[in-house]
Design a protein that fits this description.
By secondary structure, the chain is of the alpha/beta class. Helix content is about 45%, strand content about 10%. It has a single domain (about 1-315), classed as Alpha-Beta Barrel (TIM Barrel), CATH 3.20.20.150. The chain is globular, with a radius of gyration of 20 Å. Magnesium ion binds next to loops.
């Protein structure tokens, strides 16, 4: 069992509340001010998109990118924070409208690979060895638009390129079945790990499992985590919650289904997640209704729920659980868990 946990979130998790149907409802907070909030909220790690660290990076050469990233590293050090990972933001550029690595355009694929190398440079400057790949637009709106076999070949090619570019990095693929695409090519942990084994260095390719994405795929997050743990490939997690099959909600951890959250914490704690430096990462959004001065509660609340669930996972009468399993009395086991969650 693990002792202490370290938590992380990304600067995009403190946001202005715009959604596809309405404008912002809160003032923007500068990155420098956000950094000052991390420790107060109980967090030690910062998750980055490449351009969270170096805004407008496409307009800059490698030297300037490195210089700016080094300044961010200093700002992190001043706050006592660590960069957990850097993710190439490949979904906003006009050249990635049809996907990055799987685009049908050779020139656009070259852009995606080049941007990924710059992302790796930024990670090196921030002293992080983890790259997260959320494959946002690597999919289709209609089946006939791309060739799904070729798409996988191209994903492998792109990942190989990154592995070659810097032999120190590890890559965590963040599967998601849909949104923004109708169908994504790497929808689940199983797909991500199978892809890892097609690359030239499977030892360095694993997953970032996000609760909401797993639920959108109709699967159970704790089982997906168990699958990745069995392969020793759970490099990080994006904990949150999701109310059924709709848009990706990024609700506070445990806010919808406490038992499902409990089982995620239980499997992480049981297999000593975090003891090799892994962060408990969140990817949560404040409700749009939340006012400015209380728009970080989703972060501190998610962390608190996680820690309270660690206590519940550890105080569960494991002897009783084993007895009930031996007797195959799963009705009673069901009751034991529900009662435990209710503090009875
Ligand atoms: C969106 C993803 C996104 C990623 C982030 C890091 O659905 O969860 O928030 O986690 O961009 O790559
Ligand atoms: Mg995520």
């Amino acid at each position: 069992m693990a002792g202490e946990y370290r938590f992380s979130f990304g600067p995009w998790n403190i946001h202005e509340g715009a959604d596809p149907f309405g404008p912002t409802v809160r003032r923007s907070i500068t990155f420098a001010r956000k950094l000052k909030m991390y420790k107060k909220l109980g967090f030690d790690g910062v998750q980055f998109h490449d351009d969270d660290a170096v805004p407008d990076m496409n307009k800059l050469g490698p030297r300037e990118i490195n210089k700016q990233a080094k300044e961010v590293r200093k700002a992190l050090a001043d706050e006592g924070l660590t960069a957990e990972f850097v993710a190439p933001r490949l979904w906003e550029d006009p050249r990635t409208i049809d996907g990055g690595y799987t685009s049908n355009s050779e020139a656009d694929r070259a852009y995606a690979r080049d941007r990924s190398r710059r992302c790796i440079d930024i990670a090196a400057a921030l002293d992080s060895k983890l790259i997260v790949l959320w494959l946002a637009r690597e999919g289709t709106y209609i089946r006939e638009a791309k060739d799904s076999k070729v798409a996988v070949d191209r994903l492998v090619e792109a990942i190989n390129d990154m592995l070659d570019y810097n032999p120190e990095i590890k890559i965590a693929i963040e599967p998601k079945p849909n949104e923004p695409m109708d169908q994504a090519y790497i929808p689940t942990t199983g797909h991500a790990l199978a892809l890892a084994y097609l690359t030239k260095d499977p030892k360095r390719v694993g997953v970032n499992i996000e609760t909401a994405h797993v639920i959108l795929a109709g699967l159970d997050p704790s089982d997906e985590m168990g699958f990745a743990l069995a392969y020793d490939k759970l490099y990080t997690v994006h904990l949150n919650d999701q109310n059924g099959l709709k848009f990706d909600e990024d609700k506070s951890f445990g806010a919808v289904n406490l038992r499902r959250a409990f089982n995620q914490v239980r499997i992480l704690d049981r297999y000593s997640y975090g003891t090799r430096g892994e962060f408990v990462g969140l990817d949560v959004k404040a409700m749009r209704t939340q006012k400015q001065d209380v728009a970080t509660k989703h972060l501190s609340n998610s962390r608190t729920i996680f820690l309270q669930l660690v206590e519940l996972a550890r105080s569960l009468d494991q002897g009783k659980v084993e007895q009930l399993i031996a007797r195959r009395d799963y009705e009673e086991l069901d009751m034991l868990i529900t009662s435990h969650l209710m503090g009875k």
